[in-house]
Task: inverse folding
């Protein structure tokens, strides 16, 4: 299995960031991407639309105690299979939160290093969007 991982700091308290990150649809909406949700809680599905591209993901886990969410990619043009994305938060002081956004996967149709780069760029953009959200 390959892994992509991006980490960052968000200038907001852990509980505030968790409210956004634990909202499986809301975290995508904060990024300014069109998203629809179907169902509730673990097992729910979200569909992101980026131009002509649709990405369907399923929520696999929400752990309030460890501030961790995990999801799988059900269908996507991304160069991965057997994909499991995880977002983990940890307090980094009173008013700051450390975020780790990672994905374990099998490369599909692309070299592993290139697939890692695609995912890390995607997750890096997500972290930047969260930073902007809390900066406003």
Result:
């Amino acid at each position: 299995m390959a892994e992509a991982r991006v980490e960052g700091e968000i200038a907001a308290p852990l509980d505030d960031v968790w409210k956004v990150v634990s909202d499986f649809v809301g975290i995508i909406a904060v990024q300014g991407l069109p998203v629809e949700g179907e169902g509730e809680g673990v097992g729910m599905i979200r569909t992101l639309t980026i131009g002509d591209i649709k990405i369907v993901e399923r929520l696999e886990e929400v752990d309030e105690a460890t501030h961790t969410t995990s999801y799988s990619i059900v269908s996507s043009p991304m160069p991965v299979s057997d994909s499991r994305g995880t977002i983990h938060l940890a307090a980094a002081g009173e008013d700051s939160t450390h975020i780790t956004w990672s994905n374990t996967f099998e490369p599909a149709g692309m070299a592993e290093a290139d697939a890692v780069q695609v995912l890390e760029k995607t997750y890096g953009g997500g972290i930047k969007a969260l930073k902007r959200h809390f900066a406003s």
Remarks:
- DSSP finds three helices and seven strands in the chain.
- The chain has a mean pLDDT of 94.
- The first helix runs from residue 14 to 21.
- Helices lie at 14-21, 26-30, 112-135.
